[in-house]
Amino acid sequence: MTPLICEMVLSSITGMLHCTAGRAVLGLCVSRQLAPWLSSLRSSTSKVVQVSPGKENEVLVENLTVLGVDIKMARRRQPGVLRKVITNEQGLARFLQAKGASREVVASIISRYPRAITRSHHHLEERWRLWRNVFKRDDEIVKILERSPESFFRSSDNANLEKNIAFLWSLGLTSKDLHRLLTTAPRTFSNSAELNRQMVELLQDICVSLGGTDPEQFIKRIISRNVYILIRSTKRVKANVEFLRGALRLSDAELLHLLQGHGADILDLSSEYIKRNFRSAEQKLRSLGCCQEGVKKFIILYPPALYISPENLKNKIDCLLEGGVDIEQILEKPRVLDFSAETVRSRLRVLEKAGYDFKKQGIAILDSSRKRFEAKLEKLSEQPEE
DNA sequence: ACAACCGGGCTCTGCCATCTCC
DNA sequence: GGAGATGGCAGAGCCCGGTTGT
């Protein structure tokens, strides 16, 4: 049966329901006896039929309870869904289970995003097919749905999803980039294609206004470095670029360079957060005798410092200082701050026991993978101090 | 052979506000 | 006026190892 015919059949039934005085009662009967059939007929654009206002569809609630859905959670999140007469909970459950989702996963998906049960079989099939353009296996998609049901179900507009995928391809992103984008920031794909286009245009404009000559490359670089960028608002990204330019007093060329490097990572921070962290880092460094120019150099060399919460940053710096590291050494090799305070602390303890002297031997040893750190440590023990 | 540099892999939803449409 | 669709927000790092340079 074509979707059009489905629609016609459905609307005639819907019409029947509207004409009936005991609509709610009939609605429940329909739900019990015809729901599976209706579910398979329903398309995503079909009319919404409600039980009498304010009342939940008891049969639906019962069905959901049987599926293991957390009704309280569903009610809190999308109360309107529980009042609907025509829904597709059974169809959705079968669909997802056929794709490899367990009963628990299905229940959790519906509990967290109840509107999922309003999507028709046809819609689900189509959406899944589109996601499979990016993913090789069903279980990859199931994992994402389990993590973020909203990303998959929030929009009923499959044409928009198709446009989005085409648009992102057109930017020259590789299939690997696209895969990572959809895995990590699945919301990107339920954005309107227009919204994504606006962000891309903003990035393009930023690049050109800073004297960049290859905006296409710039965009690819930003998106692949920061896969969250497209789920941020242009307002936020604009504000952060302006903030970085002002706070660091950067020239166009310097800013362009920063944004294409680690600067891209912090572009999506909340604008207030980035300011707060900057002020706090500045204050901490100044208190340690660092000049304004030094602060600037530090942030340019290591923008991820603005990602670290004020308390955590202070903690890491203090812990290095207490361990015998110089603030100048931290400023020169800020990537030592990549590691957790706990890792740094334990390395400092080990090195102290080994009689390591940071003044003489530098701090590079702290900024290495566990494997390399241990290898270096072993070397040290083989060559006792003279 | 070793250090230094650097890119990149993981990872990020769940809620509220505001529209649009019926 | 209510539900659906969509935009936007808060929240807040750590680690590995390939490549390049000496």
Task: List key phrases describing it.
386 residues, Transcription termination factor 3, mitochondrial, DNA-binding, globular, mainly alpha, single chain, transcription regulation, 23 helices
Order of helices and strands: HHHHHHHHHHHHHHHHHHHHHHH
Number of strands: 0
Count of helix runs: 23
Helix content: 55-70%
Shape: globular
Poorly predicted sequence stretches spanning 5 or more consecutive residues? 1-50
Q: Supply the helix-strand structural class.
A: mainly alpha
Return Rg in Å: 28 Å
User: Mind telling me which CATH architecture of the domain at 157-268 this is?
Assistant: Alpha Horseshoe
Query: Mind telling me the CATH superfamily name of the domain at 157-268?
Result: Transcription termination factor 3, mitochondrial
- Sketch the major β-sheet: none
Question: CATH fold name of the domain at 157-268, please?
Answer: Transcription termination factor 3, mitochondrial
Tell me what portion of residues adopts beta-strand conformation: under 5%
Cα end-to-end separation: 87 Å
Query: Regarding CATH, which class of the domain at 157-268?
Result: Mainly Alpha
Rounded mean pLDDT score: 84
Subunit structure: Monomer.
GO molecular function: DNA binding; nucleic acid binding
Organism: Lepisosteus oculatus
Subcellular location: Mitochondrion
Give a written overview of the molecule.
- The protein is mainly α and 386 residues long.
- Residues 1-50 have low confidence and may be disordered.
- The protein has helices spanning 3-19, 23-41, 58-67, 71-77, 89-98, 103-112, 121-131, 138-147, 149-153, 158-170, 175-184, 193-209, 215-225, 234-248, 252-260, 263-266, 271-287, 292-301, 310-322, 327-332, 341-353, 358-361, 370-382.
- The chain contains 23 helices and no strands.
- Among the domains are: 54-153, no CATH class; 157-268, Transcription termination factor 3, mitochondrial (Alpha Horseshoe), CATH 1.25.70.
- The N and C termini lie far apart (87 Å).
- Helix 5 packs across helix 6 and helix 14 (234-248) packs parallel to helix 17 (271-287).
- It binds a DNA duplex (22 and 22 nucleotides) through helix 11, helix 17 and helix 23.
- One of its GO terms (cellular component) is mitochondrial matrix.
- Belongs to the mTERF family.
- GO terms for molecular function: DNA binding; nucleic acid binding.
